[in-house]
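Teaching assistant here, posting this on the class forum so everyone can see the example we discussed in section. The complex has two components, and the goal was to see what a joint structure prediction looks like when all of them are supplied at once.
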Amino acid sequence: MSVVLDAARRRGRVPAALLIPAGLGLIFLVLPLAGLVVRAPWSTLPQRLTEPGALTALRLSVQTATLATVLCLLLGVPLAWLLARVEFPGRRLVRALVTVPLVLPPVVGGVALLLVFGRRGLLGGWLDATFGITLPFTTAGVVLAESFVAMPFLVIAVEGALRAADHRYEEAAATLGAGRWTTFTHVTLPLVAPGLAAGAVLCWARALGEFGATITFAGNYPGRTQTMPLAVYLALETDLESAIVLSLVLLIVSVGILAALRDRWITGP
Amino acid sequence: MTTPLLDARLVVDRDAFRLDVPLRVAPGEVVALLGPNGAGKTTALRALAGLQPLTAGHVTLDGVDLDRPASRGWIPTERRPIGVVFQDYLLFPHLSALDNVAFGPRRHGVDRRAARATARDWLGRVGLTGQAHRRPRQLSGGQAQRVALARALAVEPALLLLDEPLAALDARTRLDTRAELHRHLSAHPGATVLVTHDPLDALALADRLVIVEDGRVVQEGDGPSVTARPRTDYVARLVGLNLYRGRAEGHGVRVAPELSLTVADRLDGEAFVAFRPTAVALHPSRPDGSPRNTWAGTVAGVQRHGDNVRVQVDGPIGVAADVTPAAAAQLRLIPGQRVWVAVKATETHAYPATG
């Protein structure tokens, strides 16, 4: 801390015009979280945490977020590789399309998913008729909704890591007899492993907090599609303290992830 | 030359630049592509490796076309029998030295155990048995260079390619590594092409030099013939000679409209004249006596050069002269000073510019 102050002293006073909004910004971000901690019913916390509803929602959330992350890795990493390594016409357009779910309100994403995978949707009808697969209002639907919203985070992180990685290592692998697939699995992936891990964690965190697309596409059925954020929303209407406890659990999980990433992002230069 | 193992004509067009280099390398022969930065040496190496497709020409190795645009012949890098030592080595940072060397044999279908045995053997040959389990970032520059060499040789390539193999090393390491590299290159039964801008590396490592300037071969031959008879200013500078081109008639070579140099050799037609800076004498006034080649000039620059002082003199031809510090002090050599330049005919070397 003194180092920071010393540096500030050397370079002159920090202007109040920057310092005051910066402080307000910090308070604005931290105060609601502090409120959550202050208002939490600490005395009854253990009982509330072990209520079957809370645990079920937590388990479902962790399961679906993990499955969504796996799905995003399976589809998103090749997509990121394609965007970073292969020149093809319309690459800029593809990159823009990939980031659309980032700016799209998740509820709209949920509606769009319904239109495609719903019973009477473009693909949903065919899936239902051919394989008897129904996605909306199922746990698989939750995974799908979370993946839709979270995948851009993974693709962007991995593409960035791939671009930053020296592609000449891949050339070196080729001179040693490695084809493109072997090069990808034996050289490229290990090289971008840190970026891949960061992208996966970010993707998992986004999937864990997903609300809008999930409630629209998968509904809110306890035990089947009711994830933590949905449970919080529901609890808010009946039992504020329950909502606070559930929120606190989500908060702890989120902070845990930030702590895991702290070496990578939070302590930047 | 015996039947070449590598027979290539490397033509690559890139923007305004055109590389056009014919190259033939016999088995066991080491050829150095020597040239200034931007001459296209690295492009030539990448074309041989298949990392840069040819625009025209061909790369034929052991009778097999690796690249021949005219007949759409193309074998991708990973299926070429080559080994490459990159300038900054490009050792895979996530693998140990041993696994870096085993990477090639593994990709060539050798099972893990045998590949590791091969790798251990190669690390032994380059003297790094003790470093087998280190990661590349734990190796010194010289050690990394040797791992890179072992990795390239472990696949027993028909063609070994080295891009500035010693450029990343400090001066002391460079000497040791150069000697060791020479030993390994001599032992390599396949063809070797190395790219460098350092004439010492080229002379020490290669059997034959191919000088490339601006995408073309300007001179080639073994070390002694190239250093004795430079054909371009670049080569002359590399080997530290004054070089002029002119028209010869008997013992005279006209190197400037108002200056003809008298030379020991007798020849006619387009010719080069070369002489050492130490063969140039400087005088405060027109010298009398034996030297036949004298002209007046202006000192353009003075620098220390080893134990001597190197003086650049402008005039009908620019010339570098090495004089002793004592002589330099006596002549009061400062830029702008008028001096007389003298070169004995017996100190010059003249040779035809053609062929």
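For the discussion questions: Chain B has two domains: 6-236, 240-352. The longest helix of chain B spans residues 171-187. Think about how each of these relates to the inputs above.
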